[in-house]
């Protein structure tokens, strides 16, 4: 039988226990690991540092340099888009954040290791593979991906020897997103317009010898479904020494559709109609470069024995806003092909639930789903039974390769807010302090190491009248970061 004094002692100890648990939760640093130092990773870190007290973040990046898609994806003639690096730099210099470069998931550490050494792990390593057309002859010489081409002129390590063959007259871009338009603009701009940007010197030299005079931008659907933005189209229409030529049949009936279109689509459609009107008035110009958007065409075969010579297309029609092939075919000659039909992520760790078909991590609002539900009710919504505890994904790894940097920002802020709420609501339980990643024996690039690389790139660029000359050799980056 428990005496009154004994009951009082138990009650007192229980109160102390509750008080101790509360103190642990409040004073123990909430250690969070973000895998990927691109926009998704930095935006999430920015939000968490602002909204989650006592949080400490490590950003792990496989390259020695940060910023991902901003550094290696944004076109060199769009420096204003890269200004977001200033915001990311402020985030990185927060004393509660560590940048750990030159560390790869699946090579230098495992996902299980991260989950054991952090309270929460957020995967944001992006999408660095391109989708294939899966048509005959796709592997012949001079069939590339727009992703590779962009990586080449933007200095992504591993692509400096791509050396695209620009000796022919015609480049065909399969796909009508902003990436495809970026490639068209870079190829048709000429070196004088690019020499003061941060484009790599080797790309500038190759482009200066380019014979490409005509770029086709081919889409399987119509002008009302084109994925490029009005900003990208307007830049092409204003590009010096370049004429945009439309096929009038592709743009027929657009006037009738205008009143029912949402405002952004209406504005870009009006711009197309205006451009076609000017084209008709001025007739066809035979001088200078040509940019030709083509619609309602799907490639079915690459023609050529040793290298691409032409593309055979099926002519499409629209049904319920989808492209439906007809029996009609068209063959259009070309000297170089860049497919630009989307990116996909890859699985970097065997323990990760990953959808290979979609190329992304299955998740709900950022919480990574378990491979198999553990509750007795397989439709259960309980967090512990449905989701991997403390494991999240954001950016293109979670959503697929959609939208622009602003889209990624909104997605990452949303996932970061969920992480903050999961800590505050004890969904992520702080039972003990976490040590963070053990980097002993690994050649890690710190933020100060990146600053040394950054300073050297800016120094090299200044000698050529450029904002920077990117270093593309990883070993050279590492030596500079180490002060060698």
Please, could you describe this protein's structure?
The structure is a single chain. The relative contact order is 0.17. α10 runs parallel beside α12. The longest helix has 24 residues, at 4-27. This protein has helices spanning 4-27, 39-51, 68-72, 84-92, 111-117, 146-154, 178-189, 191-194, 201-208, 230-237, 254-257, 263-282, 383-386, 396-399, 405-424, 447-462, 474-481, and strands at 30-35, 55-61, 97-101, 120-123, 129-130, 143-145, 170-174, 214-218, 242-244, 289-294, 297-303, 310-319, 322-333, 336-339, 343-344, 363-364, 367-369, 387-393. The N and C termini lie far apart (74 Å). By secondary structure, it is an alpha/beta fold.
Please give a handful of descriptors for the protein shown.
19% strand; 17 helices; 6-stranded parallel sheet; alpha/beta; globular; 484 residues
Strand segment count = 18
How far the N terminus sits from the C terminus, by CA atoms, comes to: 74 Å
Q: Order of strands across the biggest sheet?
A: 3-2-1-4-18-17-16
Main sheet makeup: 7 strands, mixed
In angstroms, what is the radius of gyration? 26 Å
What value does the average pLDDT take? 91
Instruction: Report the uncertain regions.
Output: 6-11, 13-23
What is the number of helices? 17
Shape: globular
Structural class given helices, strands, pairing? alpha/beta
Strand content: 15-25%
| Helix share, percent | 25-40%
Condensed summary:
The protein has helices at residues 4-27, 39-51, 68-72, 84-92, 111-117, 146-154, 178-189, 191-194, 201-208, 230-237, 254-257, 263-282, 383-386, 396-399, 405-424, 447-462, 474-481; strands at 30-35, 55-61, 97-101, 120-123, 129-130, 143-145, 170-174, 214-218, 242-244, 289-294, 297-303, 310-319, 322-333, 336-339, 343-344, 363-364, 367-369, 387-393. The chain is of the alpha/beta class.
């Amino acid at each position: 039988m428990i005496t009154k004094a004994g009951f009082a002692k138990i009650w007192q100890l229980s109160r102390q226990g509750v008080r101790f648990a509360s103190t642990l939760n409040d004073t123990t640093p909430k250690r969070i690991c973000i895998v990927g130092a691109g926009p998704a990773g930095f935006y999430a870190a920015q939000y968490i540092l602002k909204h989650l007290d006592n949080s400490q973040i490590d950003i792990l990046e496989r390259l020695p340099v940060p910023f991902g898609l901003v550094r290696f994806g944004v076109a060199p003639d769009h420096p204003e888009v890269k200004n977001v690096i200033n915001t990311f730099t402020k985030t990185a210099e927060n004393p509660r954040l560590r940048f750990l470069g030159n560390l790869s998931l699946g090579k230098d550490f495992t996902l299980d290791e991260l989950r054991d050494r952090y309270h929460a792990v957020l995967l944001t390593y992006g999408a660095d593979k391109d989708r294939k057309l899966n048509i005959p002859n796709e592997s012949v010489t001079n069939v590339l991906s727009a992703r590779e081409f962009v990586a080449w002129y933007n200095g992504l390590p591993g692509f400096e020897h791509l050396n695209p063959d620009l000796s022919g007259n015609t480049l065909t871009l399969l796909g009508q997103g902003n990436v495809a338009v970026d490639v068209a603009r870079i190829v048709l701009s000429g070196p004088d317009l690019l020499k003061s940007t941060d484009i790599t010197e080797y790309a500038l030299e190759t482009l200066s010898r380019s014979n490409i005079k005509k770029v086709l931008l081919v889409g399987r659907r119509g002008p009302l479904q084109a994925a490029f933005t009005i900003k990208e189209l307007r830049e092409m229409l204003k590009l010096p020494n370049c004429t945009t030529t439309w096929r009038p049949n592709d743009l027929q009936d657009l006037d009738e559709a205008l009143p029912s279109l949402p405002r952004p689509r209406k504005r870009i459609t009006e711009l197309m109609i205006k451009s076609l009107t000017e084209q008709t008035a001025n007739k066809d110009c035979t001088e200078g470069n040509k940019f030709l958007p083509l619609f309602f065409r799907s490639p079915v075969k690459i023609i050529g024995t040793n290298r691409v010579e032409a593309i055979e297309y099926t002519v499409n029609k629209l049904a319920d806003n989808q492209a439906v092939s007809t029996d009609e075919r068209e063959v259009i000659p070309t000297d170089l092909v860049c497919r630009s039909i989307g990116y996909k992520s890859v699985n970097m760790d065997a323990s990760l639930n990953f959808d290979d078909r979609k190329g992304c991590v299955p998740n709900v609002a950022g919480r990574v789903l378990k491979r198999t539900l553990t509750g007795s009710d397989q439709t259960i919504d309980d967090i512990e039974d449905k989701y991997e505890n403390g494991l999240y994904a954001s950016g293109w790894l979670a959503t697929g390769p959609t939208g622009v940097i602003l889209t990624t920002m909104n997605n990452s802020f949303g996932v970061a807010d969920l992480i903050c709420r999961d800590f505050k609501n004890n969904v992520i339980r702080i039972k003990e302090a976490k040590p963070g990643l053990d980097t002993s024996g690994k050649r890690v690039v710190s933020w100060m190491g990146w600053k040394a690389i950054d300073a050297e790139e800016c120094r090299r660029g200044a000698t050529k009248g450029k904002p920077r000359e990117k270093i593309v050799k990883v070993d050279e980056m590492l030596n500079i970061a180490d002060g060698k």
